[in-house]
Amino acid sequence: MTDDDFVEKTLVFLNKLDLEFFQNFFVYDEIDSTNIKAKELLNENLENGAIVIAKTQKSGRGRFNRVWESPDGGLYVSFILKPDIDVEKTTLLPLLTSIVVSKTLSYYGLSSKIKWPNDVVVNKKKIAGILLESDVYKDKLRYLILGIGINLNVRGDLFSNELKNIPTSVVSELKKPVDYYDFLKKLIIELEKYYSIFNDKEYFRIVSEWKKLSDTLNRLIKIKSSSGEIIGKAYDIDDSGFLIIITDSGEYKKIMSGDCFYFY
Length: 264
Ligand code: BTN
Fold this sequence. Notes:
Elements: H1 3-15, E1 22-31, H2 34-41, E2 49-57, E3 75-81, H3 92-106, E4 113-115, E5 119-122, E6 125-137, E7 140-150, H4 170-174, H5 180-199, H6 203-213, E8 220-225, E9 228-237, E10 243-246, E11 252-255, E12 259-262
Parallel strand pairs: 1-2
Antiparallel strand pairs: 2-3, 3-7, 4-5, 5-6, 6-7, 8-9, 8-12, 9-10, 10-11
Helix pairs in contact: 3-5, 3-6
Biotin binds at residues 33-35, 57, 60-63, 66, 68, 76-78, 119, 129-131, 147-149.
């Protein structure tokens, strides 16, 4: 596929989908980061949701300001949503997105799990990551950007050796590439389905689905966050997606965000 083809082909593909929540499409061969682009686009008074896609990213970003390596063959997409929802429920959206990615992978026979809050892993290796960025003003959510990076048809040797946790990819797991547009279509349709469940405030469905896919619950874990480190057993998630852990001393702690580590 030449670069020109990618933009045109992707726009034609998206326009044919007839989506409920996303009507604006922005496609690039190469940009810094689809999440950064999404933030710029927000100044353009988008009335509905939008999808931003790039074939490759020069400065793809992950959680905790990490680099998200974005070679050709991966899927790099950000969804812009301007929802009128309870700010306190936004913590459910990264969880929801990880369910969406996991369900999409299952169409290809790949069984994945979710490491809290939203890393999608296959055979203990990360295959996809999610970066949610939002802006809250006076208790009102002004926007929400859901950035998804999926190692789709990316050969293992295209990732740098510096990555601490060796990732995997769909092509490595299946031993054959998948069709980019077929995968993207399934992903977007799943997202619309789960986002509509979210809009209907059926939060319990998202929480129970996440629990079924969880790789973290019942494990001894360490959470690192700006307020320090906590070690304990992952006990549950509550109806806002907060992780509840029981420490050695038997205390229950609720955790909203942080980096999760296992003691294998
Ligand atoms: C993580 O696991 O740390 C999250 C990774 C999120 C990567 C995606 S790729 C599309 C979007 N644009 C970015 O710069 N990051 C997200």
